[in-house]
Structures are given as C-alpha cells and as structure tokens.
Amino acid sequence: MPETAAEANLRKQLEQTLADEPSSPILHSNLGVFLWDRAEAEAAAKAEGEEEAKRLRAAAAEHFLAAAKLNPNDGVPFRFLGHHYARAGDAPRAAKCYQRAVALNPDDAESGETLCDLLDLEEKESLELAVCKEATGKSPRAFWAFRRLGYLQVHQKKWSEAIQSLQHAIRGYTTCADLWEALGLAYHRLGMFTAAVKSYGRAIELDSSRVFALIESGNIQLMLGYFRKGVEQFRSALEMAPCNHAAYFGLASALLAWARHCIMTGAFGWAASLLKEASDAAKVCTSFTGNISCVWKMHGDAQLTLARCFPWDDCNIKRGMDDGIFKAAVLEWRNTCLSAANGAKFSYQRALHLTPWEANIHNDTAICLDLICTMEDNNSLDPIVWELPEKMSLGGLILEPVNKDFWVTLGSVSCNQALKQHSFIRALHLDTSLSEAWAYLGKIYRQTGDKQLARQAFDRARSIDPSLALPWAGMSAENYHQSGDGPVNESFESCLRAVQILPLPEFQIGLGTIAASSGELLSPQVLMAVRQAVQRAPHYPESHNINGLVSEVRSDFQSAIASYQQARFALNMMCNSKTDNKYRIADVSINLARSLCKAGLSTEAVRESEELKRQGLLNADGLQIYALALWKLGRHDEALLVSRNLAENLPSMKQESATAALGFICTLTYCISGKDSAAAIIHKLPGQLSYSTQLKFIICALDALQPNKRFQLPQLSMPPRLTSYEVMSEVHSNIALGKAIGGELDKFLRVDSGLSYLRKVLHMYPNCSLVRNQLGSLLLSSGDWMASHKAVRVTSLSHGYTSNRGLRSLHQIQACAAVSCYATCTSYPKFSFSTCEDHYLSGYNAIHHLQRWVHLEPWNQDARRLLVLAIFQKAREEKYPKHICSILKRLILQVLSSDNNSQENKVVQYGNYLILLLSSEVSLQSSDYNNCIAQATEALGVNSSIADSFFAHLQLCRAYVMQGNHLNSKSEYMKCLQNHTDTEIGWVMLKQLASICSLEGTSDEIEIHLRECIERKGSNASKWVSLFNLACAQCSLWHEDFASAEKAIAQACAEGDPDICILFFNGAISMDIAWRFAAPQFIPRAASSLRKAQQKSLASLPIVSLLLAQAEGSLGSITKWEKNIRLEWFSWPPELRPAELYFQMHLLARQSSTAASQQNQLVETMQAPERWLLRAIHLNPSCSRYWTALLQPVYV
Amino acid sequence: MKLAGLKSVDGAHDESIWAAAWVPAADHRPTALLLTGALDETVRLWRPDDLASAAPPVQGHALGVVSLSAHPAGAIAAAVSLDSYVRVFDVDSGASVATLDAPPSEVWGIQFHPKGNALAAAGGGSGSVKLWETEKWKPITSLPVPRPEGARPDKTGSGKFVLSVAWSPDGKLLACGSMDGTIAVYDAIRMKFLHHLEGHHMPVRSMVFSPVDPHVLFTASDDCHIHIYDAKEKSLIGAMSGHASWVLSIDVSPDGMAVATGSSDRTVRLWDINTRASVQTMSNHNDQVWAVAFRPPGGTGVRAGRLASVSDDKSISLYDYS
C-alpha cells in the first residue's frame, strides 16, 4: 500500500520535529512506531511489499534503538525491538528485549504474551512461570500474566493455585470462554462441582460451541444425579461434534442412570425407552472405537438393565383373549428380555476379550449369565458340573480374591447351598458389616427352615443398612406366618418398605398377598405394586390373580375378570404337578365366578360354578356365589337348593365365615320367598351363634318390615358397651325406621313413633352423626309445623367432610330445612317483613351453603335441585325480580337436561315434575302465561305414571285464570277435584281459586277433602282449618262480602293457636267493617285480635301497632294509643317509614306537647310537631289530609 | 425445599374462596399477579409480595367462581362460574372479552394451552373436554371421555362428571379427571383419545403436568392420595399419602422438584417428588383449602418462589418457596 498524502505529511512532520530535537527519546520512539506501522501496512497490502516493509522496519529499529539508548526506562521501544529481533529470527535477543519491556511495564500484555510464546517454543516452562509470577507480583493489573499463569498451573495440575490466578485473570478478560473453561476444569478436579458447573455454564454461554465444557458439565450433572440436564448437555455437545465418542459415552451413561432412576420409581415403560436410546448411543460409540472395553461394558449394562425391566404390555390382548394369545404374548415378552440379555452377554464377552485382566467384567458376565439361566428355566440339577455363571464368578475371584462383593456374587449365582453359604461367610470374613451378605445368608437360612438364624441374619442386615430391600422383605415374610393381628400389619409395612426400596415383582406379589389378607387392597401403593408385578412377571399366575383382586376391590369387574382369566392361562402354562395346580385353579375360578357375578354376567358365573362343582371343588364361598348367580338368573328354586346345601355346611365352618354365610342365606331367602320365610330361618337360628354386624342389620331390617310378630331378640337389646358404637347406631336407626313404618305397609308413615325412639337413642349416643341425621330427616318428613327449625337444631352444622349415610345427608337436611320454612324468612325488610316466629336462620345464608355443596359435589343432582328450590324461595321473597328469574331458568335447564339417562327412576321423575312446576310458576310470575301453561302441561306429561297430578292441574287452573280463560280454568278446576291430593295446602289453594272460577258450590267438597286428608295423615288439624278459613275469608273479601269474611276469619282465629298473620288479618277486617259500616261493636274484637298478634310476634310487625293504636284510640284510651304509635315507629326500619307514620307521629307529638310531659325523652318530642308534619308532606305530597292539617290554626 | 409463611389476608373475599391462579408477567406489567375467585361472585387481583389489592374486583360471576385460568401471555384470564358460563376478561381492566356458553351441559375446571392458542374446559356432566380457540373464541371441538372397558356402575345416576383438565407443558398431551376417579389422556395434537389412567376411585379434582418431564402427571383425588403417572406410558409410578381428607388441589413448583396440595383437612402440604414424601404441612387455614398455585417463573427481578393458597375461610396465604 503506497503512502497516502496524510501519512506522508505526518512523516514529514515527525522527521522535522526529530531533526529539531534529536536527543528526545519520545520523538525517536514516535517515528519508530510510525515506520513500524507503515511496514505492517505494506506487508499486509501485497506480497512484493515485503521488501519495502523490511526496509521500513530496519529504519524503525534504528529509531527504537536510539530511543532505548536515550531513555532506558521506557518499555515501548524495547517491545518493538523485541518484535524486530523476533521477526529477524534472533530469538534470544528478542527475548531479552521483551523481558526488558515487561520488567519496565508489567501490564504490557503484548510483550508478555510474545515473550511467553517464545519461551514456550523453547520449552522453558520454569522461566515462563517465573516471568508470569514476577509480572503478577509487580502489578495486579497484569491480567495477561495471571491468565498465562493460570493456564500453566492448570497444565501442571496445581488446581487450587490455578483457581486463584484464573479468577484474577477473569477480572481482566470477563468474556474469555477459555478462562472460564479452565476455571471450570480446576473446580471440577478439586471436587467443587457446583462451582465447576457454573464456570462451564458461563463458558458455554459465551461460546456455545464449547464441546469440552458441555461434556464435562454433563459428567458433573450425572455425578450430582441430574440425569435430565446431563442428557441435554451431551445431546447439545453431539450436535456440535457429531463424532465425539466421549459425548456418546456420556450420553449412554446418563441415559442408563436416568433409566435406573425410573426403574426405582416403577416407570418401566419409560425406563425401557431410555435404555433403548442408551444402548443405541453406546453402540454408536463402539462403532467409532471398537477397542475400548468400558464402552462395551456400558452397552452390556444397558442391555442387562433392559432385560431386567422390560415391561409386559397386555393392552393388545384385552379383547377376545384366549390361551394361545396369552401364551404368545408372554413368550414374546420373554424373548425380548432374553435377546436383550444375550446382547448384554455378547457385549460383556467383547469387553472381557479386550481386557481379560479386569475382574469386575468377569463378575458382570456371571450376573448376566445367571439372569439368562433363570429366564431360560433350564436349571440342570447336576451338582458336580459347575454352572457357567459360577465359573465366571470364580474367574473374577481368582483375579481379586479379597473383593467381598465378588464373594456375594458367587453366593447368589451359585446353585449349591453349601457353596452359597461358604461364599457369604467368606464375604463376611472380609467385612462383617456387609449387609447384603447377611441378607442373603438370612434367605438361605429361611429356605432351610432355620427361622431363628434367619431372623437374626435379617435383623443384622437391616440394622447395618436400612435401605436394603431384601431384609425388609425377609422380615415381612417372617411376620406374615405368625398368627395374630399385629404382625400382619407389621408384615405389610415391612413389605411395603421393601417394595418402595426395590420394586421387584416377587416383593410386589408378596405385598399384594399381605394386602389381600389385611384389607389394604384399596391402597394406591398396593395397586401400583401389583400392576407393576404384572408388567414384570406376566408368567406368574399369582401376579394376575392379585391384580384381579385389586381391580375387583375397585369395582372394575371387567378388568378383574380379564386378570383372573390370565391367571388361569398362566397356571396352565406352568408345568407343576397336577393336584397342586388343580387347587390353585379352583381358587382362581372362584374369584372369577365372583367377579362375573358382580359384573352382572350371571350366566357365565353359573357356568364357572357348575364347572367347579363337577370337579368337586366348590367350597362355601363358591356355594354362595353359585346361589347368588342362580338367583340373579331367576332360577330361584335351584338357588334355594344351593343355599340349603350351604346351610348344611354351616356347622363345619369357622365362626366368622359361618355368620357371613348365614346372613347371606337370610338375605337370599328374603329376596326369593319374602320376609316370612326369612323370619322363619332366623327363628330357627342356633342360640349360641354370636351375631355379626351384618346379621344384626339384617335382623333389624326384617324386624322393621314385620309389623305384627316382632322378633323379641334378646341380642338386640344387649347393653351398648358390648358391641361397637357404629354398629349399634346403625341398628338403632333401622329400628326407628321400623317403628315409623308401623302397622300396615300401605298406610302413611307413623313418623312420630320413629322420632320418639330416635330421641331416646340420641340421648344414649349424643355424638353420633348418623342418628342425628336420621332424626333430622325424620323430623323433616313429619308434618310438624316447626319441623324445619327443629331439624336444623338437631343436626350439627359442620363444614368440609361429612358422612353421607342415613336417609338424608347433613347437607340435604340443612338445605331442605332452609327451603321448607313455611314463613317468609327474609332478613332484608326491603322486600317483605319476616313472619317467621323463630328466625332460625338469621345471619346464615342458605343459598351460599347450597352453592358450597354444589361446588363440593358438582355431580350431585340433589344439591342442584335444592339450590333451585332455595333460589326460588329467594325469588318469591323478593317478589320475583328479573335477574333472579333468569338465573333460575338457567339452573332449571341444567337440572332438567342432565337427567336424561335416569328417566326410569321414579324419584327423579317426581323431582323433574316439581322442577317443571316451579319453572311454570316462574313464568307465571313474569306474566309469561303461554310458557307457564306449556311447562305445566309438560309436567303433566312427565308425571303421567305418578298419582299426584293435582298440582299440575292447579297450576294450569291458575294460569288460565290469569289469562282470563274461564272455560279452561273451570275444566282444570274440576280435574283438580277429581285428582285428590294428600297435601293440605293444595286444597287451601284450590279454595282460593274456587271463588275466582265462580264455582262456589264445590266449596264444601273441598273442605270435606281437606278434613279427610288431615285425618289420614294425622296432621295438625287446627292449623290447616284456620288456614282454610283464612282462604275463605280472602274469597269473601274479593266479593266484598264483609260479613262472611269476618265470620270465616273469626273461625280461623278460634282454632287452637292461630298464626299472627291470621290474627292481624282478623283485626284489620274488623276495623275495616267498623269503619265502613259505622259498627263500633267490631272495634273491641279488632283490638283483642291485634293485641294478641302484637304479643305473639317477636320482632314487632309493622301496621299491627298502628291499627291497634287506632282501635285503642277509638275505644278511648289515649295512653294506649300513644304507646302503640310509638311501638309502630320502632317496628319500621328507618329508611322505609311511610308518610302516614310521620303524620301519626305529628299527631302524637302535638298530643304530648299539649300534655307537656317532657321530663322523659320520648320519640315524638325529638322534633317539633310541625316538623313531623312537614316530613310527612315531603314524603307524600299528594295526600290532602296532611295539607289540611298544615292549614290548621296552630301552624298558620 | 421448604415453605415459609409470608403473608395472610383474612377476609380477602366476603365468602369462601374457591379458585386461584397466577397471571404471568407481561410486556406491560413487570410482575406476576394473583387472581382469586370466590363464592361472593367476584374475581379479585392481588400484588405478589404484599397481597395488596391490585385492581377493583371484577363482578358478575353469577353464583360463584369455580375455576380460574390465566392466559400465558398475561393479558387475559378466564373464569368459570356455577351458572356454567366461561367468562373471559382482561386482567388489568376487568373488561369482559368474551362469554362462552356451553349449553345445556356444564363446565368445571379450565386451563389455557401452554402456548395460549386454546382453552380447554372440563365438560362437567357432558362427560367431555371442550376446547375453544382463543382468537375468535369459537368452539373447536369436544372430546368425549369414552367409558373404560370395565365400566363400573354409577352411584349417582348422572353420567361421568368431568372435573379437572390439564395440558402437558409441551402441548402434546391433554388429560381430564372425572368424578369416578378415572383419568382420560388425549393426544392434543391429533385430538384423539389415547387411554385411561387408573388408580383413583374417587373424584379427581385437580391435576397438573410436571414442567420438566412433560409426560409426568400429578393428580389429587378425594381418596386422600396423590398419584404420579407416566401419562404417556399409561403407568402409575408413584403415590403419596398423608392428607386426612380429600385432596382438593395440586400444583407443581416451577423447578419440578416439589408439589403442593390443598386439602379438606384444612392443610397445605409440600411434597418432595424424589422421595415421594411429605416435607412440610402448613395448617394456617381453618377451613378446607380449595386452591394452591405456584407463581410461574419470569418477570423482572423475580427469583424467589411463591406459593399462594386460598380457602373456604375467606383468606389467602402467601408462602416463600425455597
């Protein structure tokens, strides 16, 4: 590159200044640097520029030399001189110059690096170290020196020193990936793995192609147990370097470790797929370098693990399975395992061939051979010939006779008991705390029947290493065979521990067996273990059998049946002695028959039982199943015959199974020939038999249905402490139901007698939730006026988990009570005033409670129905606001649409009928008459099979009346009369309609029906008659027939204990009559009714007091008038007080002010009388009376 | 691995709180926020560290909020209420985005697809999983839950009520849990039923896939157990027991090392997945715990793990997970 004009200019300037001042080292140096740069540029521009460059460099060197001479303390000229000599090939001189430069300025990275490179070339490592150390000692900013030093220290494996240097160097070169990598290596070698991973991670972050860092950090992740991350890192390393065998080896080992982890948790399918990848990776690695023994060993390990964990998959043969298919599937599985094992064997053989001096490969081969032997099942029983596994194991031992693990291996692969024992004892000689050896020794002793020694050995093994599975399993087996309750549980726990530590099929089957006998089959741990056992040992019949039991206990009968069938096929595959097999097949067949019966396949169950019977293997359990299946098929006589057969066997049975069988016989007899025969059987019972839970239950249930001849069984009235609490409460609630059922079955329930019995029981068992629930539900079904209030008090309200036993659940009782209060229980007086005398639910939101219930059990239709009812109740209280109506309609739609599949159920049908009526009512209230009629008609359709269609007709009648369709309404009315109802309120409502339909003539008929109804049900006559009279009075009022209205309402009041509303109504009518017809004789009557009403209502009802005040005033008692007006003031909520009330207060205030009785602060004296009046006018300016009052002389 | 109580807000809602979900951090909002839904028909938004209210409550979830799910982009969320509408709303403004109706059957649990392009809802009484796309909010499909081969008799008479739904983090699998304890697994790409997972025999109310192993599924059931399934290989690979009553909700920590559960026994438990054991029990709630939720990773300066739990006692609790 030729010199540009600017450069030429600069050179001239430099030369000029140097000429002016030739002794300045700086100027020499500057010119030198300029020339040197020119030389570099020339050299870089073209090849032939080399000559020119050389010339320039020489010139520059002269200037540098001059500068160095003039000022020997400046490092820059020395550096360039160094460059010059180095270029000229004069290494020693160059080194000296650089050394000088570095000595003068230790931060000079360029000289330092070049010097070190020079020294490196001459392999003067110690000199290089000395230079770096000197520089680092001189200046903390000599980062180049720290870096060089760090690399050298890493090279010399001085890890901890290297870490310090490297850390320092990193401060200078923060983004140097090499430094981070070296630091990672140093940490790695020092065993600081987390720090190493972080450093490697930083290196990878800076430069994603760092294969070394990726592989090394993968290895560390593997060592720390993070297989997943390790696999990721090896995979990304392989992406960068697809032929790196270290990465492949790492990947294979990571996958193998991950798979082993999966096996420990029982994810065999997952493990198998990982292992296949692992052995593929190892295979690829061997294809790169076939002569590394450890790669072959890795491949062998992966294959061996695969052979051990490959799961059997039965999903292909679920349907249409037979012996052949099952056998083929099992054989296929076995072949897969075997081929994997053989693959492992070959790999180990190769490894052994490469490195025959490695003892552990001998050992691995021995283990692999042992596995193949057990899988092939061809153990020859010749004790003289040494088996192959034994031989290989001994080969390992010859190489390393002091390896205790090899002795253990020899012991476990050997078939010879004496040799086994000898090897384990040799292993224990080498290390007395070798838990495996103790455990195996225990196993040998157990097999030879030496219980005491076995237990001791297991105990020792377990105390040395509690994380070893075998001793736990051994202890479990020891405990299982002992009798009694405690040890079985302990044995279950031990076995569970063993299975959790090591999921071996043998342990898992054992766990299943223990669980079956101790009733733990529902536990998910057992389910998991047994399902895995089937995957791992499909050739064991027991695994299928227990799998069936587990499915059965979970009500999955189809799977259970399939499992039992598989168990039978597996038994057929085994080549054991015939008689032994026969009993095992019989056991499985009984299980199968039971499952078939439970699944509803009675025909098949009968076939199985008959097959068993033919072979003479039908025991008591089998007989029960046989009888049940026959009964289900409708072959009653045969079923009875079988049950008689069973009854003959009773005395020879154990007590527990005998009582169970007896219970079965009773139930069956009851189902086939009715209660009398069942009762006869119970009467024939041998007295000494103690009654089990079920039997007691059956007896009291039968007793409940037996109206006349009660069993006077002494056993039922035995003292409570002798039997368990739970049972007795169930028995008692059954008895109570029996009492309620009473004399004849077609009569109404005699709830009262049941109630009184339950009350006694509750007194005995005060904290039994079942009894409480039962009592609550009986109360609700009693016609008691206050039942809803009482029911809630009886049951205790609790959130969360509640038992659902009894007639109704706790939730149901609460909800039913909330919607069944006859009075309006609103707590918000804006809509209406509460007339409920108890206010039991104040502050308690029934709808929220129901919503919680729906949220808890969203599938529960009862909850949804009750929610609909509760919201309807709310809508009714709030006068059917539009938003609630629309929510109601949506909820009703949900309830009706989700019931499609249970149309046959009568209860559900009746529920739907009621819901439809409710929906019709909502339409009626929103003046949608057509929909209302349509829904009521639909309700009639739903209800076609049920007797009680009265209310649908009533609803139709109401709708037609509202529509003004008199013809239709009359016809519906007549239908109501024809379709009787047993619900009193129906008649009362019909009475109201009678007058509107102008069908007065039938009124008496209604009354007769109502009285009949009351008599039949034994309900509270006075309440209903007074209500009926109220309806009569209302009708008369509509026709402005005050005289008869008064008569009717007076009658209503005369009945027993009238409701406050009726009293109030009576008072109001009397007052009205007195006012209309100027008949003062009615005023005292009115006053007395109103007084009663006022006394009865807890929270004072509005208007009652006002009316009473007027009556009292008319009767001449001013003080009473005053008192009542004041009462009236307080019975209104402040924001709702009407204008009239303010007017009355005005009158009162004027009265008081004239009386001047201001010593005690009364309400009316809070304001001046005219203020009261003004407020009244402000609230209702349209009332002329108020204006007139204002015009009175007092104010004018 | 432990939980430390940070803050508890009593009376956070006027009524029982039934649902909780974290809204992930978004471009316009640097931190994740907590959403809660309750019986009082509102959804409320809370700040992550002091549980201060972050926005006025969103009203109008008639009859109470059953389930909540936040879109992974952090802008919108969906809520299911007892009147079986799915209401999709903007998290920050509370404005309604869409209202999804599923007549005449119902919806219960919901979850957004991990990429956010679909919304899956457990179809309640319809016995299916319903899917909506999230652009125009049109229904995509309804995946019916086939009856397992060993069809067991129903106790209630109503079909299979589907309660819970979960997407695998890679979006390849979709699982739903039913009231009879069966779990159905679907291939979410081809929209095909794969198989049932068995083991529970009572309602499965909540489930979640592991964030690190996309085919490992954790389920919580009324049978008091927590199961770990390999959902792809159809095998039960773990079971954890310890709750004294129903397990109502489950969530897995973002590092995939721990799960937290809420139960009817009024406790929140933390479980170590590796040892399959309960590590810690928090009993600060005094009514059943209906939802637990780990804060998703992401957001500026957010390193610490957070767990939120909500309960029938109207309170929200926040824990530090480390």
Protein architecture, described:
The complex is a heterodimer of chains A (1196) and B (322). With 1196 residues, chain A is an all-alpha fold. Chain A has a domain at 980-984 and 994-1058. Chain A is flat. Chain B has 322 residues and is mainly beta. Chain B has a single domain, classed as Methylamine Dehydrogenase, Chain H, CATH 2.130.10. Chain B contains no helices and 28 strands. In chain B, the strands form seven sheets. Chain B has a four-stranded antiparallel beta sheet with strand order 1-28-27-26, with no helix packed on it. In chain B, strands 2-3-4-5 form a four-stranded antiparallel beta sheet, with no helix packed on it. In chain B, strand 10 (110-112) and strand 11 form a beta hairpin. Chain B is globular. Residues 150-158 of chain B have low confidence and may be disordered. Chains A and B meet through helix 15, helix 27, helix 29, helix 41 and helix 43 of A and strand 20 and strand 21 of B. Chain B: It holds the Pfam family WD40. Chain B: InterPro entries: SKI8, WD40_repeat_CS, WD40_rpt. Chain B: WD repeats lie at residues 58-99, 155-187, 197-239, 240-281, 282-322. Chain B: Keywords: Repeat, WD repeat.
Largest interface: A-B, 55 and 62 residues
The shape of chain A is: flat
> Beta-strand level of the residues of chain A, as a percent range?
under 5%
Q: Compute the CA-based radius of gyration of chain B.
A: 18 Å
What is the level-2 CATH architecture name of chain B?
Answer: 7 Propeller
SS-based class of chain A: mainly alpha
Can you write the helix and strand succession of chain B as a string? EEEEEEEEEEEEEEEEEEEEEEEEEEEE
CA-CA gap between termini of chain B? 5 Å
Outline of the structure:
Chain B: It holds the Pfam family WD40. The complex is a heterodimer of chains A (1196) and B (322). By secondary structure, chain A is mainly alpha-helical.
